[in-house]
Design a protein that fits this description.
The chain has 701 residues and is of the alpha+beta class. The chain has 21 helices and 26 strands. The strands form eight sheets. Strands 17, 18, 19, 20, 23 and 26 form a six-stranded antiparallel sheet that branches. It has a five-stranded parallel sheet with strand order 3-2-1-13-14, sandwiched between helices. A four-stranded antiparallel sheet has the order 5-4-9-10.
Length: 701
C-alpha cells in the first residue's frame, strides 16, 4: 500500500462558549477518521485552533473586566481539556490570534489585492451612539420588515424566514446597549467573489469537481449559477474599530472580518506544527502538492468553506482542499438541544458526571455516515446500544474466556497442534472476518456501516463461544485441551475485533493492548492469498490477568446528567450569538406572545401547488412562484433562492397564507406568502409540505 500525506482539519470552535455534545459530533467523526488513517501507516497531521476574533469576544471580555487575550487563553485551556477528555487527539491545537495566522491573513489579502480582487466602497451601517461602534448584524434587533415579528436579528427573521439588511429593520435597537442605532457610512473592503475568475473557478471546483458531497455540490450549483449568470455577491471582509482582530495593512481602523482569518487559522496552526516538528509547510500548501487536504465541517458553514475559502486560496496562489466533508446537526431525543429540558449538554458536565467518553464515541460512530443528514442522540437507545453492543457483545468475549487462560493455563494461549487446529477453525468459521469491507467503510466515513459489520462479527464470536461453552467444558477434567482451545479462540477473536474498533475506542483498546500483552494495534493488512488466521496472535502468546474493561450505563447516570444541565426557562439569554460549530445547534426562536383561537382563525392557510418557479432577474434572494390554490392561481415572490433550484419546486405542494394583503414589490405584485422553516443561515430554509392526499385549495386548520 502506498503511503499518503494527509492534512486534516476540523472547524474552529469559537472562543466564546463551552464545547457541548453537538460540537463533539464533528470532532469525534474527524478523530475516528484520522486514527484509522494513522493505524494504516499513513502520515497524517490533524490540526485545529480556537477561533478568537470578533465583536462577541471583545464585548464578553469587556463585560468580565479582562482583556480579550486573557479571555481566549482561558477558553483555550477549557476547550483543550474537553477535547482531551473525549480522546480527540490533535497534532496541534492552536489559536487564530497568532503570528502565523496574521502572516497568512496579510499574505493572502496582499495577493488578492495585487490580483485586483479587493474593492473598497462605502456602505451604510447601523451605529450604536452609546458604545460608539458599528453593530454587526447579530447585534441589532428589531421588528421584521416583512412580517412584523418583534426582537428579530439584523440579518434574518426566525419567524417568517425572511432575509434582509439590518437597515431594513423596523424600530431597531442595539443588542449591546439598548440604544436606538443611527445610520452611518463607512468605507469597507470587499473580496470580489463576483469576478469572473472566481465564479468560473467555483463552477468547476465546487459544482463539477469531486471536492464536495453530492448534496453539497447541488447546493453550490444553486449559489454559483450557470455560466453567464452572475449570482455571486462580493464579500465584505472588513470591520471597523473597535474590534478584536488583525488590522488590515495600510488601512488604519479597519480590521479583517473574523470569517476571513478563521479558515486561514488552519494554515496558521499547521505552520506552528511545522516549525515545531520540522515539517515542510510548502509540501502541503503549494498548488503542486501531492498531499491531501481535508476539512471536516458542519453543514451550516458550507457556504464559507466551499465558496469563499477555495476562491481565496486559488487566487492567492495556494492549493485548494482535496475534499470538504460536511455533516448534519445533532438532536437529542428527536428534538433540538434544550437547556430547559437538560439536553443542551456540555462536554465538561458529561465528563464530570463520570460517564465514559467512549460510550458517546461509539454511539456517534453507530449513527454517522458520509451524508449531511442530522443524527439523533436518543438517550434510551444510547443506554441500550452501549450496554448491548460494547459490554454485552464485545467486552463479554474477553470476560468469558480470559479467566480460564490465566487460572488453568498460566496465561498462555495454545501452541503446536492445538494452535494449528485453532487456525483451521478460524479459517473455516470466520473466513468473512477480512478487513477490506470495514476498511472501505472507514475510508468513506460510513462509520455506521463499519459498526454494523463489526457487531455482526461479535455476534458470530459469541455464538461460537456459547456453542463451545467453556464454562461447561471446565467441569470435565478430561477435556483440558478443548477448554484451552475454546478460550484461546475467544481471546484471538477478541483481539481481531479490538483492531477494528481501535479508531473508535482508543482508550479502551489501550487497556486491551496491556491485557493482551501486545504491541500497539495497527490496521490489519491481508494479501488476497492470505487467510484470516494470518492476523492472529502468535502460538503460545502470553496474556496478562484480565481486569474489567468497561461498565454498563446505569439509567441513573443519564438522569443525573440531564438534571445537571437543566436550566430554568427564565435564565438570561447569552450575551452574544454563537458561531461556527455552535451554530450547528440552530437556536430555537423564543415562542411569540400568546394569541387566541380567534386571532389564529383570521389567517387563511391553503394548500398550494407550485405550478411554476423561476429566477427573478436582478433579485439576489427571490424566486417567483406561480401557485395553484384550487379556485385560482397566485403569484408569490419568496425569499428562498439560496435554498432551492426552481426546477426542484415545480409540481410540489406547499402551504401559503392566502389572505395576506398583496404587496407591490420592485419585481411585481406578490399575492401571498409561502411558509418555510429556517435557522437564518445561507441556504438553511425548508418550505413546508403537506402529507400525501392534500389537494390545492384545501384549508389548513
Amino acid at each position: 500500500m502506498s503511503k499518503r500525506k494527509i492534512l486534516v482539519t476540523s472547524a474552529l470552535p469559537y472562543a466564546n462558549g463551552s464545547i457541548h455534545l453537538g460540537h463533539l459530533v464533528e470532532y469525534i467523526q474527524t478523530d475516528i477518521w484520522v486514527r484509522f488513517q494513522k493505524m494504516r501507516g499513513h502520515t497524517v497531521h490533524y490540526v485545529c485552533a480556537d477561533d478568537t476574533h470578533g465583536t462577541p469576544i471583545m464585548l464578553r471580555a469587556e463585560k468580565e473586566g479582562i482583556t480579550p487575550e486573557a479571555l481566549i487563553a482561558r477558553v483555550h485551556s477549557e476547550h483543550f481539556g474537553d477535547f482531551t477528555g473525549f480522546h480527540i487527539q490533535f497534532d496541534n491545537y492552536y489559536s487564530t490570534h497568532s503570528p502565523e495566522t496574521r502572516h497568512f491573513s496579510e499574505d493572502i489579502y496582499g495577493k488578492l489585492k495585487s490580483a485586483g480582487l479587493i474593492a473598497v466602497r462605502g456602505i451604510e451601517q447601523l451605529y450604536d451612539p452609546v458604545k460608539n461602534m458599528f453593530l454587526p448584524d447579530r447585534f441589532v434587533k428589531g421588528e421584521c420588515p416583512k412580517c412584523g415579528a418583534k426582537d428579530q436579528y439584523g440579518d434574518s427573521c426566525e419567524v417568517c424566514g425572511a432575509a434582509y439588511a439590518p437597515t431594513e429593520l423596523k424600530n431597531p435597537y442595539s443588542a449591546v446597549s439598548g440604544a436606538k442605532p443611527v445610520n452611518k457610512s463607512s468605507e469597507h473592503y470587499f473580496f470580489s467573489l463576483s469576478d469572473a475568475r472566481c465564479a468560473d473557478f467555483l463552477r468547476q471546483w465546487a459544482c463539477d469537481g469531486d471536492h464536495l458531497q453530492p448534496e453539497a455540490a447541488n447546493k453550490m450549483r444553486e449559489w454559483v449559477g450557470e455560466a453567464g449568470e452572475n449570482k455571486l455577491s462580493d464579500w465584505d471582509i472588513s470591520r471597523d474599530a473597535p474590534y478584536f482582530g488583525f488590522e488590515i495593512p495600510g488601512a488604519a481602523g479597519k480590521y479583517f472580518y473574523v470569517w476571513l482569518d478563521a479558515p486561514i487559522g488552519y494554515m496558521g496552526s499547521f505552520k506552528n506544527l511545522c516549525e515545531r516538528e520540522k515539517i515542510q509547510f510548502d509540501d502541503y500548501w503549494q498548488p503542486q502538492s501531492d498531499a491531501e487536504l481535508y476539512h471536516f465541517i458542519g453543514k451550516d458553514i458550507l457556504y464559507f468553506h466551499a465558496l469563499f475559502w477555495p476562491a481565496m486560496l486559488k487566487n492567492a496562489g495556494y492549493r485548494t482542499p482535496t475534499k470538504i466533508f460536511a455533516h448534519g446537526f445533532l438532536t437529542v431525543n428527536g428534538e433540538k438541544m434544550s437547556k430547559s429540558r437538560g439536553t443542551f449538554i456540555t462536554a465538561e458536565s458529561y465528563l464530570k458526571q463520570g460517564l465514559n467518553p467512549e460510550w458517546l464515541r461509539y454511539y456517534y460512530a453507530a449513527k454517522l455516515n458520509s451524508t449531511l443528514e442530522d443524527i439523533d442522540l436518543n438517550l434510551d437507545d444510547f443506554v441500550a446500544r452501549v450496554n448491548s453492543d460494547l459490554v454485552g457483545k464485545f467486552i463479554n468475549i474477553a470476560s468469558r474466556c480470559a479467566g480460564f487462560i490465566t487460572k488453568r493455563f498460566d496465561g498462555k494461549l495454545v501452541e503446536g497442534e492445538q494452535y494449528r487446529a485453532l487456525q483451521t477453525m478460524v479459517d473455516e468459521h470466520f473466513a468473512s472476518w477480512r478487513p477490506e469491507a470495514i476498511e472501505q467503510a472507514f475510508e468513506a466515513r460510513e462509520f455506521s456501516t463499519a459498526i454494523r459489520q463489526v457487531m455482526k462479527f461479535a455476534d458470530e464470536a459469541n455464538e461460537m463461544i456459547h456453542h463451545l461453552a467453556p464454562w461447561e467444558i471446565a467441569k470435565q477434567p478430561d477435556r483440558t485441551d478443548d477448554l484451552h482451545r475454546a478460550c484461546s479462540l475467544g481471546i484471538q477473536l477478541f483481539y481481531l475485533l479490538a483492531r477494528y474498533l481501535k479508531p473508535i475506542l482508543p482508550g479502551t483498546v489501550q487497556q486491551i493492548e496491556a491485557f493482551l500483552n501486545c504491541e500497539p494495534l495497527t490496521w490489519p493488512q491481508l494479501r488476497a492469498d492470505q487467510p484470516v488466521s494470518a492476523l492472529l496472535l502468535p502460538a503460545g502468546h502470553a496474556i496478562n490477568p484480565y481486569q474489567h474493561l468497561m461498565t454498563r450505563i446505569d439509567n441513573k447516570q443519564i438522569d443525573a446528567l440531564i438534571a445537571a444541565n437543566t436550566q430554568s426557562l427564565t435564565a438570561p439569554p447569552p450575551q452574544s450569538p454563537a458561531r461556527h460549530a455552535e451554530k450547528q445547534q440552530h437556536a430555537v426562536a423564543p415562542i411569540a406572545e400568546t394569541i387566541s383561537i380567534d386571532d389564529f382563525s383570521k389567517i387563511d392557510l391553503r394548500i398550494a401547488k407550485i405550478v411554476n418557479a423561476e429566477h427573478v432577474q436582478g433579485a439576489e434572494k427571490l424566486l417567483k412562484l406561480t401557485l395553484d390554490i384550487g379556485s385560482e392561481q397566485r403569484t408569490v415572490f419568496a425569499g428562498i433562492k439560496s435554498a432551492y433550484d426552481p426546477e426542484q419546486l415545480k409540481g410540489r405542494l406547499t402551504v401559503m397564507v392566502a389572505n395576506l394583503a398583496p404587496r407591490q414589490m420592485k419585481f411585481g405584485l406578490s399575492e401571498g406568502m409561502v411558509l418555510a422553516a429556517g435557522g437564518g443561515n445561507p441556504g438553511e430554509l425548508f418550505i413546508l409540505s403537506p402529507d400525501s392526499g392534500a389537494q390545492p385549495g384545501m384549508r389548513v386548520k
